[in-house]
Write a structure and sequence with these properties.
With 539 residues, the chain is an alpha+beta fold. The chain has three domains: 241 residues, GROEL, domain 1; 98 residues, TCP-1-like chaperonin intermediate domain (GROEL, domain 2, 2-Layer Sandwich), CATH 3.30.260; 151 residues, 3-Layer(bba) Sandwich (GroEL), CATH 3.50.7. The strands form seven sheets. Strands 9, 10, 11, 12, 13, 14 and 15 form a seven-stranded mixed β-sheet that branches. The longest helix is centred in the middle third of the chain and has 24 residues. The chain is elongated and about 95 Å long. The two termini are 51 Å apart.
Length: 539
């Protein structure tokens, strides 16, 4: 930059990189497209998996879009914005992360031609906003009511199909629907109340629903009962031991008799703790802190089953399942604070003991006990079940679904094409590009299934224009034909599609509006002086 006297005016720090106008826009678009291309091959039931290896050698095998994008270390700022889209989609809906990212990449790709033709980015972003608003309107008009259990089952099966669950998607879908309905309160599903407990061993088909809570802990004493029927449960957030003082103190004992009475007093204190627990009728105790060995002994003698060092989330789940109150002081517990369960049993799973709390009257926290051959299988199964739980949850809350397999995207593409001509002006060009970008979802689904994508898109468009219920027609990925997806039971929550379209439009617009990228040079780490540290003799 030069002043009036042609003297250079230094505004930016030396080493700062700056790209402007079309160069900056195309760089950002290229970065966003690269992220979309990274996950594109995982889309749909025939999508492939990715193996991700981090710097310390840990391996993750998944086809979950958000997991892939979280694991890979993205550096480009525009690419990071696209990764945020996946995270938002995951937190809002639990599924559709790959769809949102692929759509964002395609919207940016379609905008390149318009930028090349000197259409101003503001015009493109205005057009995209109009198209996104119209898309939400169209999606709501083609949505179907979903209050029945069979629709929820179909939503879960659609989510699980293509995940690494083998042929067990129907069995797992049934578990997910039962779990979601169990924790539903006032039309809301808090998916945090559905716990997933993993244990290596068996096969995926051995996964089952526990109407209660499973804790990966063993009893604190070997002589405690392994099974307690009609359990009255006490929960403590404090330790069952003699507390140490908060300040340093020194006790000097000179007489041996005094030493004996001091120890006896300590023992009596612990005995009183167990007597207090016994007096309120509790026969099972869970503590988030330590349990003294002497307390363990007295509890075993009294026939009380005890567990220690539980996580806060475990105590909270047991509280929701059994109705117990978490107590911070043993001497304050009353009968009303106890929770109730039909059975608390310690079972040997593999080589470890686990506590199963079942037979609760109306549990608001339940557990899916997941089995699988390896740790990697279990991790991917957990991700798949979490996605299915979230999609069933949002379907229960919203009561609306749309057909899957590319049906809503093709309907959007056709209707937005008609809508574009009614808008007119330069925005029409952007809306047409938005409509074209919608085709990327069925195109990718066909591509990943090894089907001719062009033929599939043509068949879909013909079906949507000519068939009676054309708006429900998607690609049958086994034959490549256009089929009514409601009849094939392929359905997705309306919220997933709405969020994907809105998120993709927002990130595309944000990237398109950037015309200047100023990147400061990273400061180098401090170097050691050539003679070693000052004041130190040479080695």
């Amino acid at each position: 930059m030069y002043g009036n006297g042609n003297q250079p005016i230094i505004v930016l720090k030396e080493g700062t990189e700056r790209t402007k106008d079309k160069e900056a826009q195309f760089n950002n678009i290229a970065a966003a497209k690269a992220v979309a291309d990274a996950v594109r091959s995982t889309l749909g039931p025939k999508g492939m998996d990715k193996m991700l290896v981090n710097t310390i050698g840990d391996v993750v095998i998944t086809n979950d879009g958000v997991t892939i994008l979280k694991e890979i270390d993205v550096q480009h700022p525009a690419a990071k914005m696209v990764v945020e889209v996946a995270k938002t989609q995951d937190s809002e809906c639990g599924d559709g992360t790959t769809t949102a990212v692929v759509l964002a990449g395609e919207l940016l790709k379609q905008s390149e031609e318009l930028i090349d033709a000197n259409v101003h980015p503001t015009v493109i972003t205005n057009g995209y906003k109009l198209a996104a608003a119209k898309s939400v309107e169209i999606l709501n008009s083609i949505a179907v009511d979903a209050k029945k259990d069979d629709i929820l089952q179909k939503v879960a099966i659609t989510t699980l199909t293509g995940k690494s669950v083998g042929e067990e998607h129907k069995h797992l879908a049934n578990i997910v629907v039962r779990a979601a309905k169990s924790v539903e309160e006032n039309g809301r599903v808090d998916t945090k109340n559905i716990r997933i407990q993993k244990k290596v061993g068996g096969v995926i088909g051995d996964t089952y629903l526990v109407e209660g809570v499973v804790i990966d802990k063993e009893a604190v004493h070997s002589r405690m009962p392994k099974k307690v029927e009609n359990a009255k449960i006490a929960l403590f957030s404090c330790g069952l031991e003699v507390k140490k003082t908060e300040f340093d103190a020194q006790i000097q004992i000179t007489d041996p008799a005094s030493m004996g009475s001091f120890l006896a007093e300590e023992e009596n204190t612990m005995k009183e703790m167990v007597e207090k627990i016994k007096s309120v009728g509790a026969n099972v105790v869970f503590s988030s802190k330590a349990v003294d060995e002497l307390v363990q002994h007295y509890m075993a003698k009294a026939g009380i089953l005890g567990y220690r060092r539980l996580k806060e989330s475990d105590l909270e789940a047991i509280s929701k399942a059994t109705g117990a109150n978490v107590i911070g002081n043993i001497h304050e517990i009353t009968k009303n604070d106890l929770g109730h369960a039909g059975l608390v049993e310690e079972k040997l799973v593999g080589e470890d003991g686990m506590a199963f709390i079942t037979g609760c009257k109306n549990p608001k926290a339940i557990t899916i006990f997941v089995r699988g051959g390896t740790e990697h299988v279990l991790e991917e199964l957990e991700r798949s079940l979490n996605d299915a739980i979230r999609t069933v949850g949002v379907t229960l809350e919203d009561g609306k679904v749309v057909a899957g397999a590319g049906a809503p995207e093709i309907e959007l593409s056709l209707r937005l094409g008609d809508y574009a001509s009614s808008v007119g002006g330069r925005e029409q060009l952007a809306i047409e590009k938005f409509a074209k970008a919608m085709e990327i979802i069925p195109w990718t689904l066909a591509e990943n299934a090894g089907i001719d994508a062009i033929d599939s898109i043509i068949k879909l468009k013909n079906a949507h224009e000519k068939q009676k219920n054309g708006k429900y027609y998607g690609i049958d990925l086994s034959t490549g034909e256009a089929v009514d997806m409601l009849k094939l039971s392929v359905v997705e929550p309306l919220r997933v599609k709405v969020q994907a379209v809105n998120s993709a439009e927002e990130v595309a617009n944000m990237i398109l509006r950037i015309d200047d990228v100023i990147a400061s040079r990273r400061s180098a780490p401090p170097q050691m002086p050539p003679g070693g540290m000052g004041g130190m003799p040479p080695m």
